[in-house]
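Below is how a single chain appears once it has passed through the pipeline. First comes the sequence as given, then the structure the pipeline wrote out for it. We keep one example in the README because the format questions we get most often are answered faster by looking than by reading.
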Amino acid sequence: MTTTTETGTVLITGPTRGLGRAAVLAMADRPDGARPDLLLVGRRGEALSDVADEARARGAKVHEIGCDLSRLADVRAAATAARELLDAGTVRPLRALVANAGSMSSDTRAASADGYEMTFAVNYLAHAQLIGDLLGSLARPARVVLLGSNTYSANAYRRLLRVPEAKWRDPVEIARPATGERKPDFQASGVAYSTAKLAILYYAHELQRHTGPGVNVSVFEPGWMPGTALSRDMPAALRAFGRGIAALPGVSTPKRSGPALASIALDDTWAHLRDGAFVVVDKEREVRPVAHDRAREHRLWEATAQLLER
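Resulting structure:
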């Protein structure tokens, strides 16, 4: 491990369980001089307090920022709280923003507090809001790390497992909840999740064009982690299947991928990552051609501004 000499503060969303919790504790476990201050953005409650207390017990300076990512007003308030801590010098300069939180709604008819399809709202729009609000607070050199997923594109293995790939449409349409009778539709929810992850890749490429020098944007794919909290809305049989195969070779776990995510945010090894570079656990990979589309990226940026202004 070679930690960057510019250790400051890391803000991370979704810190309470799974990958996020493992990443937080991996950062807290770093030695003095290499350990960042931590801003933990997550739902208020016992889980947020528990991970904050555990990180403090390991030597980290930690501040909890309560936030429901399905409410853009909460996201804006969280950004304001983070800026106040930074401006007051309560924590060191912000060197990394890790957009880790993720969600997959079992019903694409479910709407966020702002009226957007829930999976797109939490995975994509909330983080676009947070990053936009805090971009000016990043102390260069800085990193923005977004959480991606290979589900954006199908391959033979994913087809065998019937993992839906993305179906791109205009972003305003993607943000619109489905209509009709409300019922779980796991094919539709899988498409919504994969489409949100494709949006994250497009956003990463376009964000890099708007940040200027000194802020590097990358996308982290933690590997396939069945049985994690992301699947909590799935049927019990599917959740049990995920837990059952979690120990198979090639299947990742928060214990493995959490420290890898911490490394992407902090270590010199990854200081070169920019332009939406895609890292799968600990290896940089090329994305498929569908993940590069200047017209879609430009339209997504434009539509995102419209959606966040509502």
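The beta strands are 9-13, 37-42, 62-66, 94-99, 138-147, 215-221, 277-280, 283-285.

See the next section for the split statistics.
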